[in-house]
Write a structure and sequence with these properties.
By secondary structure, the chain is an alpha+beta fold. It has one domain. It has two helices and seven strands.
Length: 124
């Protein structure tokens, strides 16, 4: 089950970032000063071949694999997003729906609706 991890917020920044996590997911959301979601990143298979589906009100959708930069034990590099293929809705979303039933339902429903939009746009 996703649980919220509390972040220290910079009072000068007018965006609120929230972080939810379980063994399979990391969900990051950003809200404006009115509490409206403006962006999210749903990272999945975080202990395996981690990928992320994201949405931003200005940039739209993205789907990437996360390269953690840890190929060498002698370097600690910054993780980066790398283009990745198809988002597996049938695999990921049932897990998300089950895992997100304990978090704010407005957030959960928003993410589900946006992911459905992504699938509709990319299945043409």
């Amino acid at each position: 089950m996703l649980t919220e991890l509390y972040l220290t917020q910079d009072k000068e920044i007018h965006t609120k970032k929230r972080w939810f996590q379980d063994d399979y997911f990391d969900l990051f959301t950003w809200e404006d000063e009115r509490g409206q979601l403006t962006s999210f990143q749903l990272c999945y298979d975080r202990l395996g071949r981690e990928r992320v589906i994201s949405w931003d009100c200005q940039r739209g959708f993205g789907h990437h694999r996360i390269d953690d930069g840890e190929a060498s034990p002698h370097k600690n590099m910054t993780p980066v997003f790398v283009k990745d293929g198809t988002f597996s809705y049938d695999e990921v979303m049932p897990k998300f729906m089950k895992s997100s039933n304990q978090i704010n339902q407005q957030i959960s429903h928003f993410v589900i609706q946006k992911v459905k939009e992504y699938i509709q746009q990319h299945s043409k």
